[in-house]
Amino acid sequence: MKLTYLTKAVAALALILAPMAGPAGAAGPTGSVPAGVSTADASFQRLLGGQEQLRGSRLLTARDLEASLDQSYASGMNDLFNQVAGNAKLASESKGTKGDVQGLKAFEDLAQVHEATLNKEADANDDFMGRIQSGDVLIDARLVAGWPVRDQQAFKAFLSPKAVGSYPSLSKLTAIPQEPQRLALAGPTATQCSAAIPCIAPCYAQQWTACVNCIMQATAKAKTAWAQYQSCKGGAGKPKWMPLKVWQAGCLTKFIAVLA
Predict the structure, then answer these.
(1) 3-state secondary structure of 134
(2) DSSP helix, strand, coil percent of the chain (3-state; round to 5)
(3) Which are the contacts of 153, defined by CB distance < 8 A and separation ≥ 6?
(4) I need a labelling partner for 209 at 20 to 30 A (CA). Which of 1, 32, 99, 250 fits?
(5) DSSP string for 100-116
(6) Residues paired with residue 59 on neighbouring β-strands, in sequence order
(7) By three-state DSSP, how is residue 2 classified?
(8) Are 214 and 199 in contact (CB under 8 A)?
């Protein structure tokens, strides 16, 4: 059963980023790839492993619900975007005598492949939450019994009738549905999407005024998206029964969609 409030999540991918040839005369060495690309991809793989391990669990403890995603990936991608955007801005301002526009395409390729992976694995997290709902995956009943009554009532409303029987503390409570929280998990709007990709064509064509204007807009979008991610990842509004990693996966997918 799909959950209407759960969107994008994380999944496994082995990324091989092929060297790119840039246009003749473009700023920076032809085929250059920013040093941070391999580091970002390595941290992505670590993050994916944590998600897979969570989805393999049959009984969730407090630690499972509260454990955070590895945050080095998000911060690394933010730093990498700022690096390639800064180099492209310098190239524009110097009319190609300094800086480098090659990194824009390398970053875009990386971010798009990662975003596609996050999208593909949305179903995996949906299915995992559905297994909690059906009772195939349980949360420690002692932990549930210690939740505030309102959270227990909302959890009872979330569960299938069969699953409710696995939690003795819910037996005498009235099920009260909780309004799904969409703030963190909703996708970005059309105006927020794809900060980097519009800048590739003007920057590679050495249309320096258009390039620098685009970079300035992209940097502003990325800055806003990073601030939103920082706020989102704390889990404010997250249902008690949703693991923090699942919630943060939604926050992360929204952030990467903006950068890409």
Answers:
(1) helix
(2) 60, 0, 40
(3) 173, 174, 175, 176
(4) 32
(5) -SHHHHHHHHHHHHHHH
(6) 138
(7) coil
(8) yes
DSSP string of 144-207? HHTS-HHHHHHHHHHS-HHHHTT-GGGTTSPP-PPPPP-TTTSPPPTTTS-SSHHHHHHHHTT-
> What tokens appear for 103 in the block?
């990194």
**Sign of the CA dihedral with 89 first, then 94, 99, and 105 last:** positive
CB atoms closer than 10 angstroms to residue 194? 19
**CB-based contact 13:124 (threshold 8 Å):** no
pLDDT tens digits for 114-169? 999 988 777 789 899 999 999 999 999 999 999 999 999 999 999 999 999 999 99
DSSP class per residue in 42-86: HHHHHHHHHHHHHHT-SEE-HHHHHPPPPTHHHHHHHHHHHHHHH
Taking the C-alpha atoms of residue 258 and residue 233, their distance in angstroms, rounded to an integer, is 16
Spacing of C-alpha 112 from chain mean position: 12
Distance CA 93, CA 101 (A): 12
By CB neighbour count within 10 A (0-12 exposed, 13-18 middle, 19+ buried), where does 91 fall?
A: buried
Residue 181 to residues 3, 6, 36, 132, 232: CA-CA distances in angstroms? 11, 9, 34, 18, 12
The pLDDT tens digits for 191-246 are 456 788 999 999 999 999 999 999 999 999 999 999 999 999 999 989 999 999 99
